[in-house]
TrEMBL record:
PANTHER family membership: ALPHA-D-RIBOSE 1-METHYLPHOSPHONATE 5-TRIPHOSPHATE DIPHOSPHATASE (PTHR43135)
Record key words, sorted: Signal
Record-given protein name: Amidohydrolase family protein
CDD domains on file: Met_dep_hydrolase_A
Source organism, top-level taxon: Bacteria
The keyword Signal is annotated on this UniProt entry: yes
Signal peptide extent: 1-20
Record-linked InterPro entries: Amidohydro-rel (IPR006680), Metal-dep_hydrolase_composite (IPR011059), Metal_Hydrolase (IPR032466), Metallo-dep_Hydrolase (IPR051781), OTAase-like (IPR057744)
Residue ranges of domain Amidohydrolase-related in the record: 85-434
Any Pfam family matching the protein: Amidohydro_1
């Protein structure tokens, strides 16, 4: 009886924890009475319109924008941004807060605990927030560390952006996302429950991730540049496996995004009803047709491609031979891929894959998007209204409007003329709280 009582207690606590996570995710915006007046010289409140308003005051109560007034008004708690350009907090749809590529990355997997990764993630979260990104999607990290960090940010215990977390990627045995290049006995220790083979096992992997607390399901539909194996960049899941993953994830209320480089993996995933593609390096005309037919999103992560190509071709290359070969093959192709996708009318959401490149450098993606043919406004839209629609958080992020969370940033110059202004953020407010004011 005592054992049964313990089991029941554990089950109740687990259910309570799951309900608490859902409640935190869906909690109504606070309307506490403390009021701030943010006086703004130039304001891009709604990037969808592209209209820059002048000489406005944002009235913020608690963590919510309650009014946008004409002129500079208010007394008491006044924030002076009259000489600045203000826009919504930015959204990065692809980061890995718990890690960052370095010469010790492969060793770190053996020496760092999940608790260590959460602490490192807290440091990276603060850098990301200071860079102007008030929302991120973390797509691939140890369940325990990233879910703990996500929940700590929600509670206000840790300074960081709002985190939509996938946790461990659903991957095939031996493929990208599984452990590769270590001793056989170590491989089994490093491999995750989310690694699967066969349609039924892949259903189990998705359900395991949902049970663990995943907000979104991330899979690795093809090989990857930084997996230490010479397995290429093409499709790794079967069509049956992909269909089972998408079906069960959608049944459980989760969207599915896929790391995918090769066109075969991209197209197979989109045919299975997948929601978005990360990277998309070798997408083809069929891919673009499927993107548009499905309403799917592309997250091109140009900064990651640029970073790995520079490391692999540089004098201080710390990648393994297998990683270097794929970096030199795929990295230089990503800019042209994004240009073709943009010309073809594919919806693009901003994402950097930071953790490959350094956290805090996220805004360097904007200049690369402009090089791929987007206008500065379109690049900004990809990191505001576009990313919010992609991540299904349009009611919470992407605009500055009455009833929305008070997430906003400021720069000195005009990013519609020079998008690199977003690399020099001088003010960050998230949920009505000022985190940076230079």
């Amino acid at each position: 009886m005592k054992k049964l009582a313990l089991i029941v207690t554990a089950a109740v606590l687990a259910a309570t924890g799951a309900e608490a996570r859902q409640a935190l995710a869906a909690a109504p915006i606070s309307a506490e009475q403390a009021t701030k007046f943010v006086q703004v010289g130039r304001l891009l409140a709604d990037p969808a319109s592209g209209r820059v308003l002048r000489d406005k005051t944002l009235v913020i109560r608690g963590n919510q924008v309650v009014e946008i007034r004409d002129g500079f008004v208010g007394d008491g708690d006044v924030v002076d941004l009259r000489s600045a350009f203000v826009l919504p907090g930015l959204i990065d749809s692809h980061v890995h807060l718990g890690s960052e590529q370095s010469p010790t990355s492969r060793l770190d997997r053996l020496t760092m605990s999940n608790a260590d990764q959460a602490m490192v993630g807290a440091r990276h979260a603060r850098r990301t927030l200071n860079a102007g990104f008030t929302t991120v999607a973390d797509l691939g990290g140890a369940n325990e560390s990233i879910f703990a960090l996500r929940d700590a940010v929600r509670r206000g215990d840790v300074a960081g952006p709002r985190i939509i977390a996938a946790g461990s990627s659903v991957s095939v045995h031996g493929g990208h996302g599984d452990a590769n290049g270590y001793r056989e006995d170590i491989l089994h220790v490093l491999s995750n429950e989310s690694v699967c083979s066969g349609a039924e096992d892949c259903r189990r992997a998705v359900r395991t991730q949902v049970r663990a607390g995943a907000d979104i399901i991330k899979i690795t539909a093809t090989g990857g540049v930084l997996s230490n194996t010479a397995a290429g960049l093409n499709q790794q899941f079967t069509q049956d496996e992909l269909a089972s993953i998408v079906e069960v994830a959608h049944r459980m209320g989760r969207q599915v995004t896929a790391h995918a480089h090769g066109a075969d993996g991209i197209n197979a995933f989109l045919k299975a009803g997948g929601d978005s593609i990360e990277h998309g390096t070798y997408l083809d005309d069929e891919s673009m047709r499927l993107f548009k037919a499905n309403g799917a999103w592309l997250v091109p992560t140009l900064l990651a491609g640029d970073f790995v190509a520079r490391v692999a071709s540089g004098p201080d290359n710390f990648f393994t031979p297998a990683q270097s070969a794929k970096a030199l093959e795929a990295g230089p192709k990503m800019l042209d891929m994004a240009a073709r996708a943009h010309r073809g009318g594919v919806k693009i959401a901003f994402g950097t894959d930071s953790g490959v490149s350094a956290h805090g450098d996220n805004a360097q993606e904007f200049a690369l998007l402009v090089r791929a043919g987007l206008t500065p406004l379109q690049a900004i839209q990809s990191a505001t209204i576009g990313a919010a629609e992609h991540l299904r958080i349009s009611a919470e992020a992407g605009r500055i409007a009455p009833g929305m969370p008070a997430d906003l940033i400021a720069v000195a110059g005009d990013p519609l003329n020079d998008v690199t202004e977003l690399e020099r953020v001088r003010f960050v407010m998230k949920g009505g709280q000022v985190f940076r004011q230079d």
